DNA sequence: ATGAAAGCGCTAACAT
DNA sequence: ATGTTAGCGCTTTCAT
């Protein structure tokens, strides 16, 4: 294994200079830097990350914790983070809490206590005060994505505004009987989505002079199947059937479309459907939706963390950073029939 | 930060004994071990992974490389691997090659050369001989999952057998005009699925005395949309319409079901559909499929790697380990109408 | 079964 | 701008 002193010898400088030249920390004359880089390249030298970390205290590694991995939102955020980290020479250590229970404690005692990461991204996770405090005590920056963490900077779309926009789109088309399929308690516990989406829905309705009807709300668990089942109930009722459905996620919205078809209803002629996400399947189903950009959220999270890791830049930024979203009209929404 | 000598002092032993007691390497009397463990617990001691790695050369970290993350198969394998690694005290460093091109080289020069992992799992990736050689030279065990890597132990289902079983299921129901939607060249390049599935299909047909008809094969890219489009062509033809379709993946199979519905065909009365995977959506669509178990594949990959990492256990096992699969009959297949 | 001590390969403070 | 050098905190021979 070629080490730093091999390079130093070869380039005719000290190890310290090699370290400085290669890491970019400290001043090195351009000529020397070139010489060092040439030597390093020639010898095929690569720093030992362990030795470097031991000496510097930096790991160049950030931990990403997710509840599951096999969901579009989570894996997209992770991909975004990964991409951004790679560019900055950081590794991504993944912790998937699949299985629940014990896993979570193990993860916390495993990577927090072993100091293997410089910072942490928690996706759609509600950390306990203790967990946050532990991280804080170890001086590990933490940012959340898409989940409510007490007192921690969290990146998320403004759920109220998004739901409001979706509902207003339907309203503006002339719909007045608009149903909403939102999260149930289990979802809230598992995904920690703020139930704000329902709030935005009701706000939009009220602003339009419509009183939200209890029978037009259905809880579901964010899967296509649950969206389907909720929609069957909603649309199967021949009296007072809604002319439009706002689903809290695209997967549920697709379930609604499928249910409508099975009931012999044509979308959007008989019923309009709108979702949230811009899931990879949304385009195929012609689903109108409010797009959010999970990859961008992952990238942004990394950006914030790396900023905070840079010495001096210890400014605490605002706690809540609203992320962009965008109405994407496709063919599942239209003016109500007759 | 409480270090190993704090523990040593507190327990009244040497640092070497602490190290041995806590790591399980070397002999320590039960009494001493207990004393050390108590001290460590009391002081809240946790080894510094960097110091430990620097001294021992072990990282307790394995790298997982995937082409994408937001696909059911990939994220499931990763979840399986993660779960299994966690149990063994290993971290998982994720490398997603999303974006292609430069990313790949960076990854290879980034984690191979920095010695940050003890071993590598490559998922559905065709590594170049150079890449494999580099890993080999660095003495990093490597196992592939679901992709063909020259000369490397790879875990995968027997695609020929799987396709054959799927086709035979259809045959045994009495179908004779069986179409197949398989991968196109792009898929082959991106996912490196062996095109063996088509081979198995044709084998089954031939064995049943049926000559595979060219017009009953359609290439697609493994997405729902491409499955839909292929099926529209296949099923839209009023003459010689197949009575059954075997799709190379569940997502495509679901596309087929949707296409059938749009054409006014009833599944399985007018057309039977079978896929491969047991994707999370398969159940919802009542899709008959050949289940494969990606989580299990991830777990198995870890198991093999950890085995190889254990000193002494350097036995090279057989190169090709066929993974289990299983026919799951749901409601999308039946005897052909009249 | 336990202890003493020599590194592991680099970084960063200090000196020049 | 560059060199000298003392650690970083543990693991592992080698003794005992």
Detailed description of the structure:
The structure is a homodimer of 338-residue chains. Helices cover 44% and strands 17% of the residues of chain A. With 338 residues, chain A is α/β, with parallel strands linked by helices. In chain A, the strands form two sheets. Chain A has a six-stranded parallel beta sheet with strand order 2-1-3-4-5-11, with helices on both faces. In chain A, strands 7-6-8-9-10-12 form a six-stranded mixed beta sheet, sandwiched between helices. In chain A, helix 5 packs across helix 13 (294-309). Chains A and B meet through helix 4, helix 5, strand 2, helix 6 and helix 11 of A and helix 4, helix 5, strand 2, helix 6 and helix 11 of B. Chain B binds a DNA duplex (16 and 16 nucleotides) through residues 1, 3-5, 13-20, 23, 25-29, 32, 47-48, 50-57.
Give me a quick take on this structure:
Two copies of one chain form a homodimer. Chain A has 13 helices and twelve strands. The mean pLDDT of chain A is 91.
Strand order, main sheet of chain A: write it out.
2-1-3-4-5-11
- Which geometry of chain A do the CA atoms define? elongated
- Poorly predicted ranges of chain A: none
Number of helices, where a helix is a run of at least 4 consecutive DSSP H or I residues of chain A:
13
The interface involving the most residues is between: A-B, 48 and 48 residues
* Average pLDDT number of chain A: 91
What would you call the quaternary organization?
Answer: homodimer
- Major pleated sheet of chain A: 6 strands, parallel
Organism (chains A, B): Cryobacterium sandaracinum
Protein name (chains A, B): LacI family transcriptional regulator
InterPro entries (chains A, B): HTH_LacI (IPR000843), LacI/GalR-like_sensor (IPR046335), Lambda_DNA-bd_dom_sf (IPR010982), Peripla_BP_I (IPR028082)
Keywords (chains A, B): DNA-binding, Transcription, Transcription regulation
């Amino acid at each position: 294994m070629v080490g730093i002193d091999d390079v130093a010898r070869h380039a005719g400088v000290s190890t310290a200079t090699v370290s400085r030249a290669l890491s970019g920390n400290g001043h090195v004359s351009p000529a020397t830097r070139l010489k060092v880089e040439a030597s390093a390249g020639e010898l095929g030298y690569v720093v030992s990350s362990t030795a470097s970390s031991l000496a510097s205290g930096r790991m160049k590694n950030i931990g990403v914790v997710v509840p599951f991995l096999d969901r579009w939102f989570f894996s997209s955020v992770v991909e975004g983070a990964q991409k951004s980290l790679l560019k900055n020479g950081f590794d991504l250590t993944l912790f998937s809490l699949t299985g629940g229970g014990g896993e979570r404690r193990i993860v916390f005692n495993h990577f927090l206590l072993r100091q293997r990461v410089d910072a942490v991204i928690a996706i759609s996770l509600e950390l306990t005060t203790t967990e946050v405090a532990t991280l804080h005590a170890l001086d590990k920056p933490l940012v959340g994505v898409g989940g409510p963490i007490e007192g921690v900077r969290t990146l998320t779309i403004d759920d109220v505004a998004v739901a409001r926009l979706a509902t207003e789109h339907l309203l503006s088309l002339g719909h007045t009987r608009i149903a909403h399929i939102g999260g149930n308690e289990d979802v809230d516990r598992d995904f920690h989505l703020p139930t704000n989406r329902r709030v935005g829905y009701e706000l939009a309705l009220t602003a339009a002079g419509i009183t939200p009807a209890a029978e037009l709300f259905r809880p579901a668990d964010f899967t296509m199947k649950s969206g389907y089942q909720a929609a069957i109930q909603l649309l199967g009722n021949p009296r007072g059937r809604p002319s439009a459905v706002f689903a809290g996620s695209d997967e549920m919205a697709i379930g609604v479309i499928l249910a409508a078809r099975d009931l012999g209803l044509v979308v959007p002629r008989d019923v309009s459907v709108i979702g949230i996400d811009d899931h990879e399947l949304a385009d195929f189903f012609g689903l109108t939706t409010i797009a959010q950009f999970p990859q961008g959220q992952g990238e942004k999270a990394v950006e914030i963390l790396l900023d905070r890791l840079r010495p001096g830049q210890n400014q605490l930024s605002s706690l809540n950073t609203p992320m962009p979203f965008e109405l994407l009209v496709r063919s599942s929404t239209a003016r109500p029939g007759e």
